[in-house]
Design brief:
Blueprint lengths: L6 E3 L2 E3 L6 E6 L2 E10 L3 H18 L4 H17 L1 H12 L3 H21 L7 E3 L5 E8 L3 E5 L7 H12 L3 E5 L5 H13 L7 E3 L4 H10 L5 E5 L2 H14 L2 E5 L4 E5 L5 H13 L9 E7 H16 L19 H16 L3 E4 L18 E4 L6 H4 L6 E7 L2 H9 L3 E2 L1 E5 L3 H10 L4 E4 L15 E2 L11 H5 L2 E8 L13
Parallel strand pairs: 7-8, 7-10, 8-9, 10-11, 12-13, 12-18, 13-16, 15-16, 18-19
Antiparallel strand pairs: 1-2, 3-4, 5-6, 6-21, 14-15, 17-20
Helix pairs in contact: 1-7, 2-4, 2-6, 3-4, 3-6, 4-5, 9-10
């Protein structure tokens, strides 16, 4: 029997006003129907925002340490249900259980970290320039936060956004990617069980061009956080700029791992396999480019191809699976188009390049781990985000050339350098034009207590995670207390 799921709006689980639903299927087995989810409309978004405004009026008056207590309970519940959540996530998104367990752990870490920040929403107390006067700043909540999240981290990214927003005293309207609605439903159930007041959280399922657009354009949503493509982010940015909304954008990446002649090649090989083919390449931080110094290029490519061919594809819930499917048919079609582009532009196909077929693979959206060598800097394969298991190898002669190739794309999220030269390592930290640089580690692996984000067309300057995200979800208010008993004028020349 097919399960039909609902939105959470106005403190209750309700059907969409449209009366319409969409299917959620397992990308490893398209015959496996997870359920039907609301194809919501504009009216659902309006109802959610109205409810969130009521929730905000109550929640903002709750002391921040008490808000943190709720999130601590959320962390406890996530930990207790880690295996069940991971299984549900793999079923609807595809990546192996080892990865979805990590996805849940990110949520647990974020919950506990946010809980502690309930006692650390620091302001500043500074001397006044006038006698018998007190001057200070404090953090205060903003209002309703619209959160639009992607498919690749069905639990972690919603928690990165929602937990800091809630800790700061805001209400949240969550619009998850339509590819992973079940995980978002499970998360909201946990938030409610932990004691979050019902109208503080709203869950509206549906398609981005309808629900996401309505949320972005709603005048009573002063804060938006969006993770997705640069093209969609451009629309979100234009709209929010016109409406004077606070906006955090986390968009595309074209991340490079640089391996220099002096590197530990075994370590670098492990790093690029994980960075390029973990999550089937469906990460904004995925290693899409491999920049190899000429001295180690040929031997490294040969070893890498052998390792890539040995990766086991299959259902992420099956023991021994290294790489799961792409999230849907359109994603696999896009990868095929870029393989054709690679051939057209003269790159050499080292391995992969085709759909993965046979046995259980025939029922899912699988694609072979693919490596192109002889990729030219500036070519489409080297410049454009693919979001799939395709790695482009670029040969360089010098460190300076490697750094220039890394910086020569419109994105700037993550980078990685493998070297045993401490001087080159510190140069990389300073010179690579990315929000994140790893030394002797792959381009993926951000930690919940550090800021996460990129530069150029990857983001707009705000950061997820760490201490900086709490500044995004709160406003600074300055207070003065004059106890002199007389008029004092700070903006008059008193000298």
């Amino acid at each position: 029997m097919t399960t039909t799921f609902k939105n959470f709006i106005g403190g209750q689980w309700i059907a969409p006003a449209t009366g319409e639903h969409f299917e959620n299927r397992n990308p490893a087995d398209r015959n496996d129907l997870i359920g039907l989810f609301p194809a919501s409309g504009v009216a659902d978004v309006h109802a959610a925002v109205a409810s969130a405004r009521r929730g905000f009026e109550r929640w903002k008056r709750t002391p921040a340490p008490a808000r943190g207590d709720v999130l601590r309970r959320v962390g406890d519940l996530l930990a207790a249900r880690k295996e069940a959540l991971a299984d549900a996530m793999t079923r609807e998104m595809g990546k192996p259980l080892a990865e979805t367990r990590g996805d849940v752990q990110e949520g647990i870490d974020t919950a506990y970290y946010a809980a502690t920040e309930g006692r650390r929403l620091f302001g500043h107390t500074v001397p006044s320039e006038l006698a018998n006067k007190w001057a200070m700043s404090m953090r205060r909540p903003i209002g309703v936060c619209g959160l639009i999240t992607p498919f690749n981290f069905p639990l972690a990214i919603p928690t990165w956004k929602a937990f800091p927003a809630l800790l700061c005293g805001n209400a949240v309207v969550l619009k998850p990617a339509e590819d992973v609605p079940h995980t978002a439903t499970l998360l909201v159930e946990i938030l409610l069980e932990a004691g979050l007041p019902p109208e503080v959280i709203q869950l509206v399922h549906g398609h981005g061009e309808v629900v996401g657009k309505a949320l972005v354009e709603h005048p009573d949503v002063p804060v938006l956080s969006f993770t997705g493509s640069t093209e969609t982010g451009r629309f979100v940015g234009e709209t929010c700029g016109r409406m004077h909304k606070r906006l955090s954008l986390e968009m595309g990446g074209k991340n490079a791992q640089i391996v220099l002649d002096d590197a530990n090649l075994d370590l670098a090989l492990d790093g690029v396999l994980w960075g390029a083919f973990g999550t089937t390449g469906q990460r904004c931080t995925a290693t899409s480019r491999l920049i190899l110094q000429a001295g180690i290029h040929d031997a490294f490519v040969a070893r890498l191809a052998d390792r890539a061919r040995a990766l086991r594809l299959g259902d992420g819930r099956a023991a021994g699976t290294d790489v799961g499917p792409l999230v849907h048919e359109a994603a696999r079609d896009k990868v095929e188009r870029y393989v054709a582009i690679g051939h057209e532009q003269g790159a050499t196909l080292v391995c992969g390049g085709q759909r993965a077929i046979g046995d259980v693979l025939d029922h899912g959206w699988f694609f072979q781990p693919t490596i192109f060598s002889g990729v030219t800097a500036g070519s489409r394969l080297e410049q454009e985000e693919i979001f799939g298991p395709v790695l482009s190898v670029i040969k360089v002669a010098t460190v300076d050339e490697a750094f220039a190739v890394n910086n020569g794309v419109r994105y700037g999220l993550s980078s990685s350098v493998y070297t045993q030269d401490v001087n080159v390592a510190f140069r990389a930290l300073q010179e690579l034009d990315n929000g994140i640089t790893y030394i002797n580690a792959p381009t993926i692996g951000a930690e919940a207590h550090l800021p996460f984000g990129g530069v150029k067309e990857t983001g707009n300057g705000h950061r997820e995670g760490g201490w900086e995200v709490f500044e995004f979800y709160s406003e600074t208010k300055v207070g003065y207390v004059d106890y002199s008993g007389s008029l004092q004028r700070a903006q008059i020349d008193n000298y």
